[in-house]
Design goal:
By secondary structure, the chain is α/β, with parallel strands linked by helices. The protein folds into two domains: 9-125 and 251-329, 3-Layer(bba) Sandwich (FAD/NAD(P)-binding domain); 129-248, FAD/NAD(P)-binding domain (3-Layer(bba) Sandwich). Helix content is 27%, strand content 25%. The strands form four sheets. Strands 1, 2, 3, 4, 5, 6 and 17 form a seven-stranded mixed β-sheet that branches. It has a five-stranded parallel β-sheet with strand order 8-15-9-10-11. The protein has a three-stranded antiparallel β-sheet with strand order 12-13-14. The radius of gyration is 23 Å and the shape is elongated.
């Protein structure tokens, strides 16, 4: 479909074109809300070949998912545009002749864009462990979510990499469902003596996991399949070859610079550090007119969850525009 000329001022700027941004864009398209979607082409799931737990798109290529979603929007609707670029600056300011209380953003090339509302669908970024070979095995042989990836790796030995929090006992419980011949915790040194972690470790052992506290020197990717697996090398003793490793790295907001510039509140780092939502029904942040969706505002970072949050954010931004227009008319 031939799109109309792009407006000088959009209703909504959607920063991010992952599942959350795409569903926000589709919601805008369905309500004929003028929106511009920015695609930085930097994705948290870079290298992931299949996404899971999405009805009708289970075990589907996430890049193909994105391509189809964008194609459907661009070919059918006439009020949503896509723009490749990385937004580096964002400010709340009066825009247009009406001096609307809106926003201006700027991309890495210095181009400015204005809109009445913002949706941050900017996602998060994993902080990978500083172990030789970790990056080369991520995400092919290191998984942070067994519900997402464990099924395909079933029937091979499982390694739990580190034991940094009580939740690692839950990883052992989940791993048991995939028929592993063995489950070993590779703690990469002594496990913390903190009571909650020791209690979780006791549970993990009771479930059948063994503990190996040797220091890890490197991880070797033996091939693309879980039957090839990953080999863990230590400072001493024999290496161990596994089907895959389970490890949940820390995450940070991919667009923390924009969050700081806009003065948006976030939750405590211990709780994930993501954007705090002031109105959960419609995903508005602590700054009026800024809405958030997807991994940047939830602890459970899943495709289906991100999609629903994108819909909520776009609905909230659209309703706020409508209410402000009604107030002006009255």
């Amino acid at each position: 479909m031939a799109l109309r000329s792009r407006p000088q001022i959009f209703d909504i700027l959607i920063i991010g074109s992952g599942p959350a941004g795409l569903n926000a864009a589709l919601t805008c398209a369905r309500t004929r809300t003028k929106a511009l979607v920015f695609d930085s082409q930097a994705y948290r799931n870079e290298g992931v070949k299949h996404m899971h737990s999405v009805a009708s798109r289970d075990h589907f290529d996430p890049r193909e998912f994105g391509r189809i979603a964008r194609e459907q929007i661009e070919s059918r609707y006439d009020t949503v545009w896509f723009q490749q670029g990385t937004i580096t600056q964002a400010v709340k300011k009066s825009i247009g002749v009406e001096q609307y209380d809106g926003f201006e953003v700027q991309d890495s090339e210095g181009q400015a864009y204005a809109a009445k509302k913002l949706i941050l669908a900017t996602g998060s970024r994993d902080i990978l462990l500083d172990i030789e070979g970790y990056k080369e095995n991520w995400p092919e042989h290191i998984y942070q979510c067994l519900a997402c990836d464990g099924y395909e790796q079933r029937g091979t030995p499982v390694g739990i990499l580190t034991f940094e929090s009580p939740m690692y006992a839950h990883f052992v419980q989940m791993a048991m469902a995939f028929d592993p011949p063995s489950i070993t915790i590779y703690s990469n040194g002594p496990v913390s003596t903190a009571e909650p972690i020791q209690k979780a470790l006791k549970l993990a052992k009771a479930l059948g996991a063994t503990l190996d506290e040797r220091k890890i020197t490197r991880l070797v990717n033996n091939g693309p399949s879980h039957t090839d697996g990953v080999t863990v090398h230590f400072t001493d003793g024999e290496p161990a070859t596994l089907g895959f490793l389970v490890h949940k790295p820390a995450t940070v907001n991919r667009a923390q610079n924009l969050i700081d510039q806009l003065g948006i509140e976030t939750v405590d780092v211990a709780m994930g550090g993501h954007v705090k939502i002031a109105n959960p029904m419609f995903n508005e942040t602590s700054v009026r007119g800024v809405f958030a969706a997807g991994d940047t505002m939830v602890m459970m970072k899943q495709v289906a969850v991100a999609m629903s949050e994108g819909l909520k954010a776009a609905a909230g931004a659209g309703m706020q525009i409508a209410m402000e227009k009604s107030e002006a008319v009255v």
